[in-house]
Amino acid sequence: MTTVTVCVGSSCHIKGSRQIIMRFNELLKEHGLEDRIELQGSFCMERCGEGLNWQIDDEPFTSKSVEEAIQTFSAKVLD
């Protein structure tokens, strides 16, 4: 099973991590992937100044916006 972890620490939360989690969850449901992809939150990924932080398994990603995170997620997880 693949694990997608989104930082929900203060800095990422303010930048939109909640929206990312909600949208990732919607996309997983739309594509019928809930049983193959686990979505979870993490309290600090220690890259606060870089942007919105999240990862797929052990591969870290930093997105400048919610839209960028969704585009990357779609390319990496849904394709």
What's a concise summary of this model?
By secondary structure, this protein is α+β, with helices and mostly antiparallel strands.
Poorly predicted ranges (pLDDT <50, ≥5 residues)? none
Strand content: 25-35%
- Distance between termini? 16 Å
Give the beta-strand count: 4
> Structural class from helices and strands?
alpha+beta
* Average residue pLDDT: 94
Note the main sheet.
4 strands, mixed
Across the major sheet, the strand order is 2-1-3-4
Helix-strand pattern, N to C? Answer: EHHEEEH
The helix content, as a percent range, equals 40-55%
- Please state the oligomeric state of the protein chains shown: single chain
Overall body shape: globular
Number of helices: 3
Radius of gyration over C-alpha positions, nearest whole angstrom: 11 Å
Detail the topology: elements first, then pairings.
Blueprint: E1 2-7, H1 10-15, H2 17-30, E2 37-42, E3 52-56, E4 59-63, H3 66-78
Parallel strand pairs: 1-2
Antiparallel strand pairs: 1-3, 3-4
Structural descriptors:
79 residues; alpha+beta; 4 strands; 42% helix; 28% strand
Task: Explain this structure.
With 79 residues, this protein is an alpha+beta fold. Helix content is 42%, strand content 28%. The chain is built from three helices and four strands; from the N terminus they run βααβββα. It has helices at 10-15, 17-30, 66-78, and strands at residues 2-7, 37-42, 52-56, 59-63. It has a four-stranded mixed sheet with strand order 2-1-3-4. It is globular and about 35 Å long.
